[in-house]
Amino acid sequence: MIRNSCLKCGRCMEVCPALVHDPGFNGPRALAVDRSRRPWGSELDTWSCTSCGACVEACPVCQPLTDAMRLMRQDLQDTGHLRMLSNLEAHGRSVSRGQWSMVNMEGTHLYFPGCMVAERMPETIGGLVTLTSGFGGLRVPDGWVCCGSPPHRIGKVDVADELAQTNRALLQGTVYTSCPGCAERLGEDGVDTRHVLELIYDHIDELDIQDTSIRVALHHPCHMMRGMGREVLDKAYAIINAVPGTEVVHMRDRDRCCGGGGGVMSARPEVALRMARERVDQAVAAGAELLLAPCPFCVMNLRRADRLPTMGLLEWLTSIIA
User: Fold this and answer.
1) What integer is the mean pLDDT of 249-263?
2) Shared domain check, 95 and 67
């Protein structure tokens, strides 16, 4: 997996957000490169890695560091992930079932809700149904299960592959989702997946948007900017800028991970919380009155900081579009 081409430049260690917030974390180079050359056992802790991909982006020789971290996790187990694995086995969701019930979704655009939105943010789905009704609407396939990203990122590849087989039979054609992690994982499984923001962007001139008077900051989800592509983030900014009265303020370290990915919220919740507080403090320092994030996992973790009102970008849009 890791080639013998590491330059020892240290760029991966400089950009790793987990190294700042977890003194016990060895960092991407020590774990993914040096560990393979030394007789270390499995005592080295990989669970603070959020799979953000900053190390891969910074590496001048493009070492697949996050893939190597995932492979190391295949032989490890953290008790923090047992509930997630149990949920997947019981009902095909990475989180416990909530109160979501299928709303009237008989539209033309295939929509994959994802576990976190369906079970923790069902109001977003209802809002999207109304928002997209003027340009085809959404429909959800019966029998969908978790996209497989959560188990895949903690090294449970066999579980992820089983979920992918179920979804692959249901998801034909272009599929829209609210979660960048879902979009990235489904795309890796061969599904043509896009963020539903891209659908909204294509029809933004058709929407009746209320005038607001607020300063917002936009958090950059790692799996969106590095997995889906920064052009999707550009569309998110374009949508926000189309909202009358809204001022966008920019945080320092705009691409910094919030700690919501890679299973860190489950395995190392205290590390994930410290990372979330860093992001929220940066938004406050920039003068934001509201922090937006186009990713449900980011929203859940950023809200844990409890220092600034935080909403999903889709949740906010559905609240201001008549």
Assistant:
1) 94
2) no
